[in-house]
Amino acid sequence: MSRKPRQRAARERRRSRNAYPKERTSTPQPGPLPSPAISLKDVTRTYGHGDAAVHALNGVSIDFGPGTWTAVMGPSGSGKSTLLHCAAGLERVDSGRVLVDGTDITHASDADLTALRRGRIGFVFQSYNLLGSLTAEENVALPLKLARAPWTPADVRRALDEVGLSGRTGHRPRQLSGGQQQRVAIARAIVTRPSVLFADEPTGALDSTSAAGVLDLLRDLADRGQTIVMVTHDPAAAAHADATVFLRDGAFTGRADGADARAIADRLLTLEASPCGA
Ligand SMILES: Nc1ncnc2c1ncn2[C@@H]1O[C@H](COP(=O)(O)OP(=O)(O)OP(=O)(O)O)[C@@H](O)[C@H]1O
User: Fold this and answer.
1) What are the beta bridge partners of residue 70?
2) What is the pLDDT of residues 97-138, one digit of tens each?
3) Signed CA dihedral, 138, 226, 247, 73: sign only
4) How many whole angstroms from 161 Cα to the centroid of ligand 1?
């Protein structure tokens, strides 16, 4: 299927299954909603003190439904990365609560947070963060070794196969294109079968063709039930997700389900144009 009809079909699927409608008065849902994969409840995070204090998150409450792909957008400095880091247990919140699969991690010990990040959270960065001296296969095996859970080389091959790189297992990062390196990074992030895959600008360093390939891959993962939370500045990338949530000045300002790139861009422009605190 070519990309446009594929995106249209995906949008229709998303519309019909989105479990967390926040702005629509939708028809009654059959049965109870599944528990969110990630839940932020009235979360605050401030950097610095006194006059220099920056309220990066200012009472944010958002649920990310299991098996949904959500894009997080907002003007520069609106708190997107801070939200991602707090939701992934990379940073602690000042107040409020963070739940992963219903488990409250707000006051988890450092050891428990490390175990959570190794076993239940996957992270993909704009800059891939692969180890240059290791092959694709060795990079993907790393989180399995760190998690100290039982694993086999077949687990690694399966993850590389899922991202379409079964023919590149022995290549080192410098022997791969940017898009292929990001695919290795995604394989590394999903090899532990995490509850949530966080992606911080996963297409930010890629040309448009490679970016489209990575977004199609994320779509496939979401369609197979992977929860994904992705920060992006690109409305076209956000349009691939099931929903987009918008932040401004550290606050949640709204959500769009199944919106196309034009509608997302318009909403972002409105946010950027309105005066601070409005
Ligand atoms: N470690 C830090 N120390 C001090 N201030 C910080 C720190 N991290 C983030 N901030 C501030 O918190 C606010 C939110 O930052 P954050 O990186 O979450 O925003 P963002 O929406 O991801 O921005 P961008 O789109 O530019 O990447 C910004 O004003 C930023 O300067």
Assistant:
1) 229, 243
2) 999 999 999 999 999 999 998 889 999 999 999 999 999 999
3) positive
4) 36
Q: State if residue 79 touches ligand 1 by the CB under 6 angstroms criterion.
A: yes
| Cβ atoms 35, 65 nearer than 8 A | no
Cα–Cα distance measured from residue 272 to residue 275, given in angstroms and rounded to the nearest whole number: 8
Q: Give the per-residue pLDDT at 18.
A: 45
Which candidate, 90, 97, 88, 92, places its Cα nearest to that of 47? Answer: 92
Does 63 score more than 70 pLDDT?
yes
Looking at residue 277, what is its pLDDT?
Answer: 53
Ligand 1 test: best mutation among 49, 60, 78, 91, most atoms within 8 Å of CB? 78
- Residue with the two structure tokens 């292929």: 180
Q: Which sign, positive or negative, has the C-alpha torsion 234, 238, 239, 243? A: negative
Find all residues with CB under 8 Å of 114, minimum gap 6, and list them.
none
Measured distance between the N- and C-terminal CA atoms of the chain, rounded to whole angstroms: 43
Please give the model's pTM, rounded to 2 decimal places.
0.88
The DSSP element (H or E) to which 120 belongs, if any, is none
Instruction: Give the torsion sign (CA, 176, 218, 112, 95).
Output: positive
* 27 band by pLDDT with thresholds 50, 70 and 90: low
